[in-house]
Structure formats: structure tokens, C-alpha cells
């Protein structure tokens, strides 16, 4: 539809408002539109735009999957997230789950269905593109600033907050916080994950690095696995270059925006922005080489480089960066900046490839140079003038910007008729100046200026003698004055007033002046004799245009076109009135041609220098219309702009090209031959955007651009009549149909009478539907409900859902009204007051939905109150508790629950823990006292360690009485410590200075356990006996803090102390306490503990009755001394049945199989590692002979690798078939225990024959290592009738 477009500037102060897909297509948000740009070529080319948002676009992201990279998502300040097809430029779907302004958006690079967005309240919404499901969570109730999805794990999300905190959360677990990264001191501007590659560094391959840029002027790189910072990069102190647009004296002060970007194909390089628009490339080096260092400009190694040279850099701060690796291997980086330029960089050469200028405001004036053909000047609301060489072959968007000395909007431009470099401009504050386009000097500013906006500039003959000047500059302002300026000194010796516009005839002999009353006066120069007056328009003249001097038909040179606020263009032929003037001057009231069709005021006119009597007009109806004046008909209508069209110029070199500038911050080049329409759209007059009287400062700062409406081409000069706005009708369709012609209304009466009185209604007449929609109001109830349905659809299409709710309430569909309001998040107190009329279930469901809405709006107290209205007290308490509103939750619980309720106690304890973490110890002590935890209250007060706090803590302990539970715990810890360390004599407590457990005995003759001693001490010294109070005492003991045991004690020492009898089932012989496990897990744990005890028992037996002769081991043979029964004292040898019983527990077949499989798998893993090492060594060899043998070796390696992999698979399958209890609890090595049992059997008759057979069988099946095979060979040869196993000596 259009050829070239200068788009609107990318939005400022957005963390991720631009992105690039794998084909090099860049999308960026500009105002409420997303523009698509082809960044893969030698110059940037605009591909189109995505329109649909009502407010500023705050985020944009492409899908990272290759076959779906045409899909993209955008977020807006209107609270919506929209999904687009960038190829077709169509909207696919959208959601509006946010209740606050969205500040961040990212399409997950690891899951192509997940899109994550976050708003300024801290609420994060996860949207699944394939199903349309959403989930939201609030990991931290703080202002969110940026977010980034991990490219390595779909469920990991990084969140950056305004106060400098970075959170790593798991989206699959409702935002569970995994890590809190602390280090930054100010808002987090950008987050970037390490790329998804396979570098040398293992941490990078696992995706454990995250880069963050903050306003505190530092870049930090984090290890997300450990949650610690790896590197801190300080921005280099670069020499500040000359200020950019708006950066000089009196301009906008530069604010640092520190954005970071990690290129996908370069894990060792990191890109960041700097203070004044520079881009810095950080060389991180091999990962780990620089960890812990702070890199700054003072470093000797200088690990950073600045992209570009000279004027290639941005002149203001950079907001967004996105990179792409093209098919040809080109690595490109695209950046957006406050200087309103989009730049493309080559990351290989670090040079700028192309630059695209953008517009930061409405375009009010266009002007082609009459000398430098094809040079177009643009002026607008961003306080800058751009000179565009539209005929450049090297860069189709080659522009130069002028901003020095300009402090207001540019509203008028005109080139000098003979001086190529002289460009005159007028501003919104009434000033007139002249720029020298070939120099860098500030402009000349006129000493006289208008009181209001300058709307017209034109060069004409001097009306008073000006020495050395052949022409003068004329300006028309909003106050009605026309000033003449000397071009060298810009003095204003001549004034004409009051008028609204003027136009000099190209030969400078006549001037037409438009007035506020709609008249046009024509004067002869230089004496300003009035020749005629045109009385055709009835509204103020906005624009005048004479037929061009170089037009194709010179007989049309006296044609004058005028446009006004009446939306019509009048063309007058003034040849007779100007060539033969009369006295008094002639009054012309008949037009040569009247061109009607626009639906808004006319703002600009331009004659074609190529076609005879072709005229283009632009209007507030957002279109440009090309007319054939001689025929009086429209030829072409252009509808590419999204807002009011403000100016127009016909190309001086191409008859098929027209240029237009509009209020949508864009300039379009379009061809007449490629348009589909011939006339402006018919229908309702398009609305003119109005400025809001009050606008939040945050929105202005976030956009960074002047969103205020332009100075209307005539709006400041029109009288504004304030009319009271008529309320919107709730039945707009039927109301509209009642405003038709008289004949149609009479026909409705006849139709209604026919339907009422005739049994058969007319064909196709259904009241309440279609063309007879409005008759539903005068027919039966069914027709009325049908009319309501169509009215509801119209309201939804117009964006008025509240009217739909009212219609459904009126029709009695209360549940439907509540459902509609719930879906849109627009439930209110009025609807909740009416909900009980629909029944109890409807009321409860509505309250629950309203509570969810209120929680998203941070109205937790109101939400809790509504939960109380449906008698959900505990849900209300949980709501307040989950949002850290402890005081309110305690007040509610105290007023509704009994004093001894456990919920109230839990609230006090939670509140106390929070107060204790924040350092409010006195308040925490009060909460503990209210919860009945007197000891905890005293402990909290004693943390300050000052005299008053300790005195108060002692007083609390005294008033609370004897703290028996804590004294009992202290007693157990003291006795256990004394028994383990053997320092009973040094203890100051009498109950800890008793004899050791091994010396104390009871009636049965066995030793006392530590638990027996503890029970005796509790009875004798603390008076704890069996009775009714034991149950509560046990509960208190279970809840109190326990002291930790020292790690110096061995497990064997603890087992012998607690279970001296060697039986895991006997807890105490003195008091006959036996442990009987019931569940399967308990039985397995009991068996594991018993096996450990038996293992130590057998080894104690072995070492206490050691061999008589030392063992001698030689290669290939094992020689052992023998032990006879005579060599061991009879009284020290236990019974053979006891040894056999303990040995049976150790000789477990399932555990032997499990241990054998684990050993075999470990062996295979070692062989695989050795194989890989050998393979890498072979590849590095450069000897030619070895290279010739490499194919054969490689085949052997492949065969070995395949066989080892198959073995590993079989072992894993065998491992899966074993019971879980075998794999869960530890067990002594069965093969080792078998050898130990057979050794004991050879010394004495302590092991039965059945146990020996079992041990030999286990050795035969599971003795796999060389050592165990050699040790078991003697026992297996002695087994009668059994052959020795086939033992292989494989490593």
C-alpha cells in the first residue's frame, strides 16, 4: 500500500520493547503500534505494522522456534497481551489477565507455548499459547521492572525489581522462589541469560549464568545454581561526546538506562549500553578466568571495546538490543535509542551497517526543495527538522537532523526558491528561523515573533524596500498576523492582519490571503491592491494553494484551491478577476469546481507538477484524496495512516508518488497506481483525539515522547463551545434506527400494525431481529430478548461491557450478568448487592470470584470482608495471613474464635517469627506470650544482650514458672555428652556423674542403656513418673527445640551406647520395652539397623579372638593361619546358635544382588571413561602410520561402546526389578560378610553348616572383583561336590 515509511520512534524506558527473529525481521513498539522492519539487508525496510492496542506498547517478543518465528506477542499499557502473525499482519488471540500496567513480556525460548508477562504490581502471568490457559502468581509484592525466561529450562524465570532485587522462580510451582540474588542497589533495567550453546565451560552449558544491568551503573553476572555473583562490571568512563537531539543546554538531561544482551552465538561476549549512547562489547574470556574481578576503565587489560567510530554511535541512551545470526554467517545487532534512531551493527567488524531515523511526534509540515530535487524537509512535534534525500541510491533513508536552537514543535517549513541550503521554519511558540543546511551552526531566529503558533511560511517579493534582497520571508500565526521578514536579518518591518492563511502565486505577482470567516482576498504585489474577494467558504480557511508555475497546462495558472474546516475543497479560476480588475473589487461566489467527500476538516493541499489539474488533499478523516479537478471527480484515496493526516507534498520527480505526514508520527511515501480506493470512506465522522486534562507523570516518563495532540491547523483559532455530553444509550441500535427518514418511520408503523393484527406476519419480518430490530421494543417479550441479544453483541464490539451487564440484569439473567463481569474482571459492589437475589449458590460463587478479583487489585481487607459474608472465616484468616497482614488476621481471629483455638495460636507464632526476622523483638515477645510460649518470649528478649532486656527475660522466665520441658531436654543432652566423651567426673550435675552404662546392671545381669539411666534420673531428680500427665509432656517434648549432637561421635559408638545388647528390637530390658515395627518401611529400617549391629558383633568377635599366626599373602596364593578351639578361651566364645542367627541376617540375597549390580555399573562407567580418554588421545596423534590404523581402532571402539551401553541398559533394568526397600536402606557388604562367616567357621564350630552353604553360594554368585575371588577360592575348593567358579581376571 505504501513504498517507504519513516515510522514512529520506538517507545522509551521499556525493558524489552523490540525483538528480532531468526530471519532478521525486527519488531518494535512505537506508541500503540508495533512496526516490523527487515534488518537483514543493506538498509532497513519497513514491512508493515500491527495495530490494535489502545495505549502504549510496553513489550514485544518473537517466538524462538524456527518454524513458528512468524508468531509474536505484544503487551500494552491497556492491560492486554496480543498475539500476532507477522507474515499476515493479523491478530490471532489475546488475553487481559493483568489488572495493572504491564512492564515486561517474554516468549520463552525453551517452550514455544509459554509466554510470560509481568505488571508493575509484581503479578506474573503465564499464558500457554496452545491451550489458552493462564496462571498467575505474586512472588514478591514489589514493583517489577524486567523479566527474562531461561533458554535452558522452561520453568525457570528471572525477575528484576525496582529496589534492586533479582528473583529466580519456578513457574511450574506457582512462582516458588528458588534464589534471591542481592547486590544491585537500584532498579534492574535488563536481564539476559547465557546462550543455549555447548561451550567449554560446564556452567555455561548448564545455563547457570545470568547477566543483569542496573541503574547503579554496574553489570553483574550471577551463577544461578549457587545464587552468588561471579563478576561485577563497572561502566567505563568514556569521554562524553557532543549532545544529541535535546541534549544541549536546556534539553532533556540524559538518564542512564543500562541494558545488557548476551548474543546467542557468543557465550564469551556480553553487550551493554553506556552513559551517552555508546555500546560496549565486554570480553568475558574463558569462564572462570576473571571471576571475582571488577572490570572498569582503569583495568590494564581493557576487556571492553566500544562499537562504531566517530558519528556512528547513538547520541543518547540506548534502550533495547537484539541480535541475529543470518544465513550467510553475518552477525547483526539492532538497537533503539532516545536519539530516535534505529541502528544495525555488524558484530564481526563492530561497525554500523545502516541507520533509520524515526519520528517522535506528529508531522505538521513537508517541503520539497526547488533547487536540490528530491530533498524533502520534515518538521513535527519532536522539536527536530529532518532533511531526507529521497533520491539517494546508497541509502533510501539517508537523513540529516537539525535540532540546535529549537525549543518547540516545528509547525511550518519552506525552502528558499534559489538558495539550496536555506531552510526556513516556524515553531509552535511563534518563532521564525532559518537554517543553513550545509553547516552545523545554530539557526537565525527572527527578532519579531508571533504570539501564537506559526502555521504558514512562504517566500515572496518584498512589499517594502529591502536593500539587496530579491525576496522576503512571510509568516502567518495563530493570532491572525502576517509578518514580513528580511532573510538576512530576520527583521519584520511590515505586518498584515488579521488572517488565517496565505499563498503566493508562483510568479510572485499575486498573493491570496485566507480569513477566519472563510473568505479569501486576492492582492496584487507589491502595492497590495485588492483585485477580488472569494465568498465561498463559511468556515475558517486552513490552506490555500495556487496552481504550480511548471504545470502541464499553463492556461490553468490562475486556479486557486482552498480548504477549510467545512470538509470541502473549492477550486476557483481567477483569470478574469485578476486580468481585468474592477472597482470595487469583484466578489466571487461561484466555484470552478467543488470537491466534496472528506469527512473531516481539510489540512493540506498540493497540486501535481506532472498531471493537468490533478490535486491531492488531506484531512482529519485520516485519508488523502487525489482529484481530477477538470472532471470534478475523485481518482485515488489513500488510507494507510492511523490518525489525522496533517500535510502533503506531490513528488517533484515521480508523477506516481505522493508524500503525506500524519498525527500517527509517520511519513508515508505511496503510489497512486497501487491504491484500491477512489473516494474517502463513508459513515460516521472520525473522532478527533482529545488531550487528557491530567496525565500521570509515570506514563509520560515511560513513553518518553510527547503524546499531546498537535497544534491543530486551525484549532487554536476556532471558538470552542463547551457542550454537555449526552449520556450513551443502552440501546444504541434501536435508537439509531429511530433516526431514519420519515418514509422509513411510517413504514415501521404499518409493519408493526400488520404483525400485531394479522395472524401471518409479512415475509422476512421478525421483530427484534435484523432490519426490524427496533420493533422488538414494541412487540412481545421474546422479541425484546432477541433485540437485547443483538444489542449486547454491539456493546461488546464497541468495548462497552458494562452495558451488557445492565441488559442481562434487566432481562432477568443475573447469573449471566455476573459471569460476564467476572470474565472481564469488572465485578463491583453494585453487582454483589444484587447477587443474593439469584440464590445462595449464585451468591457464594459471585463472592468467591469477587474475592479473586480483589486480591489481584491488592484489596485484601475488602476481600476478607466478603469471605466473612459467606461464613468463610478460616479462608479469610488464611487470606490475610498469606499476604503478611498479621495484625488484621489476629484481630479477626481474636474477635471470632475461642481463646484457646489452635488457629489463633498459629497466627501469633507466625506474626512473632516475622517480627523477629525484622528485628522487632519486643513485639515478637508479646506475640509469643499471647500464644503461650513463655520460654520463646524470654529467649527472644535475651537476644539483645543488654541489661534491661536480660532483666526482662529473667522476669518472664520466673513468672512463667518451672520450665520442666527445657530442663528435661538439657538433662538428656548433658548425660549423652558425658557418656560419649567419658567426662562424667567433670560434670557439675549429680545425675551425670553416675557410673557408665556399661558398668550399671539390673537384675537380669545385662547392662543398662542410656535410656534406662535417663528414665531413672527423670524419676529421682525431676519427679517424672507414669501418670496422666505423660501424654501432654511427650507432646511438649516433641515441639521444643532439641540441641544438636556433635559430629565427632561414630555411629558404632552411638549404637553401642543406645543398644548395648546388640538387639535392635530391645529398647530396654529393665522396663521391658520392645520396638515392634508395623509398616513395610519400618520393617526394612529395623532390618537395616539390626544388620549393622550384627556386622559390628561379628567383627568384634573376629578381632577379640584374632588369629594365632599372621596372614601371608603372595602372588597367586592366599596363606592363612588356622585357629583351633583350644587357642580361644572357652568362656569368651559365644554360642554357635547366636553367631549363626546373627549371620543369617547379614547373608541377604536381594542385597547381594543389588550390591553386585551397583559394582558392575561402576566398573562399566570406569571403562567408558577410559575408552573416551583413549579415543581423544588417538585423535590428537599426528603420526601418519597411526592415522592409517585409526579406522580399525575406531571400529573396535564403536563395538566396545555399543556392548558397554547394552550391558548398562541390562543392569538398569535388573535394578528396576529390585524392591524399593532394598535400595532405600543401607546394608553391609554381603560378600564381605560371607568371607567373615566362613573364616569364623574354620576357626571354631561357631557357624552351622547351613549358614556356611549359604555363604559359599553367595560367594559363588556374587564374588565378582579379583580380590574377593582370590579370597573366596580356598573356601569354594573345600566345598565337597562343587566345582570352583569360572573366575575371569578382567579389570
From TrEMBL:
Protein name: Gem-associated protein 5
Highest taxon of the lineage: Eukaryota
Phylogenetic placement of the source organism: Eukaryota, Metazoa, Chordata, Craniata, Vertebrata
CC annotations in GO: nucleus; SMN complex
Biased composition (Low complexity): 1114-1126
Record GO terms (molecular function): mRNA 3'-UTR binding
Residue intervals of the Gem-associated protein 5 RBS domain: 1129-1262
Biased amino acid composition, Basic residues: 682-697
Gene3D superfamilies membership: YVTN repeat-like/Quinoprotein amine dehydrogenase (2.130.10.10)
Keywords, sorted A to Z: Repeat, WD repeat
Biased composition range(s): Basic and acidic residues: 1267-1279
Residues in Gem-associated protein 5 second beta-propeller domain copies: 370-661
One GO biological process term: spliceosomal snRNP assembly
Gem-associated protein 5 first beta-propeller domain segment(s): 76-195
SUPFAM superfamilies xrefs: Quinoprotein alcohol dehydrogenase-like (SSF50998), WD40 repeat-like (SSF50978)
Presence of the UniProt keyword Repeat in the record: yes
Region Disordered, annotated ranges: 675-730, 983-1007, 1114-1135, 1180-1199, 1264-1291
Organism in which the protein naturally occurs: Muraenolepis orangiensis
